[in-house]
Every structure is written in structure tokens, then in C-alpha cells.
Amino acid sequence: MSTEGMSRGSTARALSAVREDRGEVQRRLDRLRAELVEMETEVLALSRLLETVAIDPERLLRDTASKRVDGAEDVEYLSIRDLARRIPYAEQTIRNLMTGGVFRLGEHYIKPRSRIMFRWSKVRDWLDRQNNSV
Fold this sequence. Notes:
134 residues, alpha+beta, Multidrug-efflux Transporter Regulator, Chain: A, Domain 2, 2 domains, four-stranded antiparallel beta sheet, rod-shaped
């Protein structure tokens, strides 16, 4: 056997090994890309969650707490969001209390210009009754 034949055989084996290594590297690269996509998706979801939980100072400036409704200077009205910050109930629970008839239109809340505004004094009285009955 000539030395030329040996070098061809070893070159072929070396090329085969390089191809296998490239295949392994490509598979690993594909796995890492898939993991990166999953992590980016998770980061986006967590960012959205943080936006809903974090207090935005600009949003606080636009809050409707203590805003008066036309013709009712002596009564404090609150939006559902503002009310949820003052009482131990979430916004959805407050909505459920409305649909369930616990909070009544005209008594506990009004709807000027299609916006729900709660009378703080009436809700506070309701909370006091709940605490006293326990």
C-alpha cells in the first residue's frame, strides 16, 4: 500500500469526523435557539405582568380618586380601580358584587357618562356592616 492511499483514507476519516462534529454542533445550536425563544416568551409574559402590577407615577397623576361628579360637591366618588386599592377586594370581585346585586346602581355606584363611579361613603358603610356581622 502506498503512502498516498493511506493519506486518502485518513483524510476521508477526518472529513467524516468533521461532518459528524458539524452535525452535533448544528443540533446543539438548534436546541439553544429553541431555549432562547422559550426564554424570550417568558420574559415578555413577565414584562406584561410587571406592567399590570407596578405602580406607574404618571398613571397615579391621572387617577380619579377624590374626583367630584357634577353637582355632588360633598360626596367622594371612586372608580373601580381606586376602590380596589382602598378595600380588600379585587376589581373583578367588585364587579361580581355589582352583578350579584350587593352593590346597587343609584345607591352604591352611579354611571355618569357610561363610567362606573362608587360612592365611597356608601361602600364604607357596607364594609362596616360586613365587619360588624363577623
